Amino acid sequence: MKITLSEQDIDRIIEMAWEDRTPFEAIEAQFGINESQVIELMRKEMKASSFRMWRKRMTGRSTKHTALRSDEVGRHKCNRQRAITNNKISKR
């Protein structure tokens, strides 16, 4: 099944993927794409060097997976969260 994303959705997914404390599960809950699809999107949308830098940063980072997080890592809320329009999670 192919998921169609707007440019605004793609920008938000990239922003969430770069955030250290936003797990892939939050991206999946909001946009319906799993970790491998996020990686595929990042590879397609970013310059090769930026993608490599992101992958190096994300590899093994426990905060990107809810199941691997320690109890000390709470929910992260972006400081621009109120300013983001069309945020599907906040409209639930």
Descriptive tags:
4 helices; single chain; 92 residues; mainly alpha; globular
List the helices and strands and how they pair.
Blueprint: H1 7-18, H2 24-31, H3 35-45, H4 48-58
Please explain how this structure is put together.
The protein is mostly helical and 92 residues long. The protein has a domain at 10-64. 46% of the residues lie in helices and 0% in strands. The protein has four helices and no strands. The chain has helices spanning 7-18, 24-31, 35-45, 48-58. The longest helix is centred in the first third of the chain and has 12 residues, at 7-18. It is globular.
**Mean pLDDT across residues:** 77
Helix fraction, binned, reads 40-55%
Beta content: under 5%
- What is Rg? 13 Å
Main sheet summary: none
Low-pLDDT residue intervals, each spanning 5 or more residues: none
Number of strands: 0
Element order, helices and strands? HHHH
Computed structural class: mainly alpha
Global geometry = globular
How far apart the termini lie comes to 24 Å
Summed up, the helix count is 4
Summarize the structure.
This protein has 92 residues and is mostly helical. The chain has a domain at 10-64. The protein contains 4 helices and no strands.
